[in-house]
Specification:
CATH class: Alpha Beta
CATH architecture: 3-Layer(aba) Sandwich
Bound molecules: 2'-deoxycytidine-5'-monophosphate
Oligomer: single chain
Strand content: 5-15%
Number of helices: 9
Mean pLDDT: 94
CATH superfamily: P-loop containing nucleotide triphosphate hydrolases
Shape: globular
């Protein structure tokens, strides 16, 4: 090899979409860590802008008010899978974006086209600047944000498996209430007009209901390696 330079591996872009509770975040972080890639949680960005709207007195039941404030928050995502950070106007919001209040309002805020345009731009610029490549998780990554991704995965799971996982994460929250809230949020996210939650035609669907996290990670890592070998 000329100048003794290390062989370069082409950057790989991986889109992982699906509804909540399918194991998207855990899988995406582990795949990125294992392959030395960057990682982006796009749900955290929508939660961060929602947190900003709520904290700045924006009426989140009014799409026009949301649209006119869409460009105001400075959202910065750290893309290290071992320590994915998120700040708004320099404030660490990784805790506050997970509150029930933000969770209950995020679908309404993220349905507004001006919000999606703003966040999509941030996502594309982070993906373009990831030298070794990136795993981006969300709802519309394979369909809208990164339609040319090298690999698209769509994770699914039964409502029961998803509710059980989510209530475990929420430290024993009632499974039935969690299931109802989760299905309501999916319905809102899947039926909105602008880039709804959807499986891209060329995505590989993986049902995680009866798989361990380890099995899902292995499956996605194998798919990435196959794509890399074919590049
Ligand atoms: O993944 P999550 O539950 O943290 O996502 C929170 C919300 O953000 C979800 O209900 C819909 C929205 N979202 C979106 O509209 N598009 C994305 N790419 C990611 C999340």
């Amino acid at each position: 090899m000329e100048n003794g330079a290390a062989p370069t591996v082409p950057a790989v872009i991986v889109a992982i979409d699906g509804p909540s509770g399918t194991g998207k975040s855990s899988t995406s972080k582990a795949v990125a860590a294992q392959l030395g890639l960057s990682y982006l949680d796009t749900g955290a960005q929508y939660r961060a802008i929602t947190w900003w709207m709520v904290n700045n007195g924006i009426d989140v039941s009014d799409p026009a008010a949301i649209a006119s404030a869409a460009g105001k928050a400075d959202i910065v995502s750290g893309t290290d899978p071992a320590d994915p950070t998120i700040t708004v106007d320099g404030v660490d919001v990784s805790g506050p974006i997970r509150t029930a209040e933000v969770t209950s309002r995020v679908s309404a805020v993220s349905a507004v086209p001006d919000v999606r345009a703003r966040i999509t731009e941030l996502q594309r610029s982070l993906a373009a600047s990831a030298e070794r490549g990136i795993v981006v998780e969300g709802r519309d990554i394979g369909t809208t944000v990164l339609p040319d991704a090298d690999l698209k995965v769509f994770l699914t799971a039964s409502p029961e498996a998803r509710a059980a996982r989510r209530s475990g994460e929420l430290k024993g929250a009632d499974v039935n209430a969690t299931r109802t809230a989760l299905l309501q949020r999916d319905a809102a996210d899947s039926t909105r007009k602008t880039s709804p939650l959807a499986k891209a035609d060329d995505a590989v669907e993986v049902d995680t209901s009866d798989l361990t996290l380890q099995q899902v990670v292995e499956c996605v890592v194998t798919l990435v390696e196959e794509k890399r070998a074919a590049k």
